[in-house]
Amino acid sequence: MIEFHLDARSGLSPYLQLIQQVRQALRLGLLSEGDQLPTVKDVVARLAINPNTVLKAYRELEYSGLVAARAGVGTFVTKTLADSSLAAHEPLRADLRDWLARARKAGLDDESIEALFATTFRALTEATTEAAIEEEVR
Amino acid sequence: MTAEAPVLQTTGLGKKYRSRWALRDCTLSVPAGHVTGLVGPNGAGKTTLLNLAVGLLAPTEGTVQVLGGEPAGNETQLAKVGFVAQDTPTYAGLSVADHLKLGKHMNPGWDAAVAEDRIARLDLDPKQKAGKLSGGQRAQLALTLAIAKRPEVLILDEPIASLDPLARREFLQTLMEVTAEHDLSVVMSSHLVSDLERICDYLVVLVNSRIQVAGEVETLLATHYQVTGPRCDPAALPADWQIVSASHTDRQSTLLVRSDTPVVEPGFTVDQIGLEDLVLSYLSEAGRTGSRGHKELEAQR
């Protein structure tokens, strides 16, 4: 069972935050097929949010085929997002740690590190998308 | 939460105290199955509207119906509505157990199991006098009484205004838990928008005894835009823009625009707006223009 939390400063609506947290738990293998999500009552009693917000998030997860509601019982995970790539997480995490240590050593503060990562990530994503579009045009 | 009669429906509702109108021209239809926030500054008419809805006040003009019935019209109607009045009043001289006994005696649909379970979970001593409880505990006791009568709609008047942040959070947790558990509709007034942001999916803004805007929170957020750009003449803006508020410097104009179609205008930056900013814009605008602004709003809606 996972526990939800809300970040008031994230800029994402509570309903999107709930969806994101389930997807993330699925991707990291914290949730797998057959696991139950917290009941609507439990979530609202913990977070003090509108029950419709939770229902909406669960419905959306159901549409994407990740969970299924069983009447009177609860909502259960039907699909996992953690594929074979999960095995690659650990070595990649180790690489990332090394890289972060090197960035610190070079004198970058947290903000610079985040900015560097974000801009590189964005540039790379844009380059790949453009390449894909060009490929399609051809 | 089925498509039954609206939780609260008013037509031209008004209440006059001597020469002063506390509520005027109030026409509303709040559907069932929502947690509705009634927001407005102190003295806007929130308590008057809620007291009319529960039958503690009689309208001077217009009509009000709750779940399709006349407020406090008969026993069935009384049983359908749970009410927690302003400042969550309890009887100081009576114990917690006495309150439950009283509740049982006065409500035909009283659910003793729900009441006792809540008291146990709140860790309240049944022998404790209500006058000795903390503000948070007293609010929870008042809420317990309103819930244990098993109403269909729960109406609360500023239940958390006087509570500290922790007690406020605990109260809202309980409120949302019972809302989910018993499929309740809730109408709750507050002058604190931030408290309502997480729990309300329907909003009614009341200023100067008049309704300024009402609707589903999602719809309100999707149809309001913060627009900034070079200084402009409001008359030159697209006709389908309803300007909620506008402020100008010598170079720049900042507008809150309500529009059912997406707002796109060359040279202007268009941003989504948060609920708190949206409500505050209506409050400050209504405060500035008085009731005249309302007429224009009404006409454009």
SSE topology:
The complex is a heterodimer of chains A (138) and B (301).
Chain A: H1 14-27, H2 40-47, H3 51-63, E1 67-70, E2 74-77, H4 86-105, H5 110-137
Antiparallel strand pairs in A: 1-2
Chain B: E1 8-17, E2 20-30, E3 35-39, H1 46-54, E4 61-66, H2 75-80, E5 81-84, H3 96-106, H4 112-121, H5 135-148, E6 153-157, H6 165-182, E7 185-190, H7 193-199, E8 202-207, E9 210-216, H8 217-222, E10 224-230, E11 242-248, E12 252-258, E13 269-272, H9 275-289, H10 291-300
Parallel strand pairs in B: 3-7, 3-8, 5-6, 6-7
Antiparallel strand pairs in B: 1-2, 1-4, 8-9, 10-12, 10-13, 11-12
Helix pairs in contact in B: 4-5, 5-6, 9-10
What would the keywords be for this entry?
heterodimer; A: 138 residues; mainly alpha; 6% strand; globular; B: 301 residues; alpha/beta; 6-stranded mixed beta sheet; 4-stranded antiparallel beta sheet; 10 helices; elongated
What this model shows, in words?
The complex is a heterodimer of chains A (138) and B (301). Helices cover 60% and strands 6% of the residues of chain A. Chain A is built from five helices and two strands. In chain A, α1 packs across α3. The longest helix of chain A has 28 residues, at 110-137. The radius of gyration of chain A is 19 Å and the shape is globular. With 301 residues, chain B is α/β, with parallel strands linked by helices. In chain B, a hairpin with a 3-residue loop joins β11 and β12 (252-258). Chain B starts with 7 loop residues before the first strand and ends with a helix. Mean pLDDT of chain B is 89; it is low at 291-301. The chains are: A mainly alpha (138), B alpha/beta (301). The interface between A and B is medium-sized, with 15 and 17 residues.
